[in-house]
Amino acid sequence: MRWAELEGRRVAVWGFGREGRAALNALARHLPGQVVELYCAADEADAANAAFPSVRVHADAPGADALASFDVVIKSPGISAYKPELLEAKARGTRFTSGTALWFATHGDARTIAVTGTKGKSTTSALLAHLARSLGVHTALAGNIGLPLLELDEASADLWVIELSSFQTGEAAGVSLGVVTSLYEEHLDWHGSRERYVEDKLRLLAVSERVLVNAAQPALLSRAAGHRGLHTFGDAAGWHVEQGWIRRGSEDVIRAERLSAPGLHNAVNACAALAALEILGYDARAAAPALSTFVPLPHRLQPLGERDGLAWINDSISTTPLASLAALESVVARRTALIVGGHDRGLDWTPFVEAMRGHEPVAIVCQGSNGPRIADALEAAGVANVYRAVDLAAAVAAARVALGEEGCVLLSPGAPSFDQFRDYTERGRYFAELAGFEPGTASIQGLGVG
Question: Where are the alpha helices (DSSP H) in 139-263?
Fold first, then answer.
């Protein structure tokens, strides 16, 4: 759907986060004078009225009848496409679109790398932009990583690196290269089932001219096998990590330890970024040294420093049990207290529990709404050193007691933050505060065009 198709129609914007604001601003640019209505949360209404006085603001969620009264609804990504009221309105003729879909519809000639994956998509996207810029490529970095595409609606770039969540992959079109970093169980509350999550996530394959997937995941590789433009990373023939090196086939290119973002999984993300550049014809080997100057993303295995003899690592972005395992592996040499738990989406913690049997850290502190369920499963499996805490503050206190004056406190919850916080960034900042650090306003470097 293009902007011209909205002219003269009854249009609503659903959601007043950054995506919703970007949509309202873009509507004002492309269709001045267009009548628009907004649906937002009650505590957002005053800010919405002040920022957009010409927009009629509804301080509640729309029902099916309200949605069906519009010709077009521009929906924010966090609102599930499978909500019953949305499906009913769609059946009654309302068209639903998004800022992502509108951007792709009007930028068909752009050279795009769209990156998705259960884990690794943000770091891979940021690495891609950083490495491309090190080669002198005029590169844009936007999307789910923290900058809505519509905020760059009028910008130009030689290469667009776009992170897409599973909520957005079906909204892309004409992608030059689609990258899938990993595929695990997540966001079941939005998609409704694991099968639908996988199907939605892999919609990116169908809209991409070429695709790059993680060869270390057989199920993902199998799903992509029929794509005529298939490429892989993580296998011995291509970009992969082996014996402490990032390699291209049998060639040692750069020591993995030179990558400024810690952990094996980040070295694998670097392989994905290097492979993507190579596929589009850039000199990946020449870009590799720039891995050492990459600024790691906040809340992703972010070392905060030391306080009271303890090292503190903020991995608040972790929202799956497997992400918690990967984080724990990255600090395996230290005495560690791992803090897990948060909003309960019903994910299966069995692989995490099995991995902890006989290999548990000094303490596993289970907190938040699903903390009791995780703790019950660990104790039933005979895992020792399990602590229970009602919230993050109590979890940090328990971790201090368990470690004494030596070790590492690792926040890698394996669950969303919504039981206690607005989002993972607020959770990460509060963790930093509890540890004794200034929470700051850490942001992702490199967003926008550079």
Answer: 188-191, 194-201, 203-206, 218-224
Q: State how far the Cα of 39 lies from the Cα of 14, in Å rounded to an integer.
A: 5
Output the tens digit of pLDDT for each of the chain's 450 residues: 899 999 999 999 999 999 999 999 999 999 999 999 999 999 999 999 999 999 999 999 999 999 999 999 999 998 999 999 999 999 999 999 999 999 999 999 999 999 999 888 999 999 999 999 999 999 999 999 989 999 999 999 999 999 999 889 989 999 999 999 988 754 455 445 677 778 888 999 999 999 999 999 998 999 999 999 999 999 999 999 999 999 999 999 999 999 988 788 899 999 999 999 999 999 999 999 999 999 988 898 888 999 999 999 999 999 889 889 988 988 876 799 999 999 998 889 999 999 999 788 999 999 999 999 999 999 999 999 999 999 999 999 999 999 999 999 999 999 999 999 988 999 999 999 999 998 765 578 899 999
Q: Helices H, strands E: what count in the chain?
A: 17, 21
DSSP 426-440: HHHHHHHHHHTS--T
Report the distance separating Cα 145 and Cα 216, nearest Å: 24
Is residue 232 within 8 A of residue 122, CB to CB? The reply is no
d(CA 135, CA 120): 23
Return the exposure string of 27-48: e unless at least 16 CB atoms fall within 10 Å of the residue's CB, then b. beebbeebebbbbbeeebbeeb
- The single residue listed with the structure tokens 């995780």 is 374
The contacts of residue 406 (CB under 8 Å, 6+ apart) are 309, 310, 335
Tokens describing residue 229: 């433009």
Q: 12 pairs with which residues across the strands?
A: 37, 73
C-beta of residue 215 within 8 angstroms of C-beta of residue 233: yes
Q: Are 393 and 286 in contact (CB under 8 A)?
A: no
Cα–Cα dist 73/101, whole Å: 12
Alpha helices in 230-283 (DSSP H): 264-279
Report the SS3 class of residue 160.
Answer: strand
Count Cβ atoms below 10 Å from residue 7 Cβ, excluding itself: 12
Global pTM?
Answer: 0.87
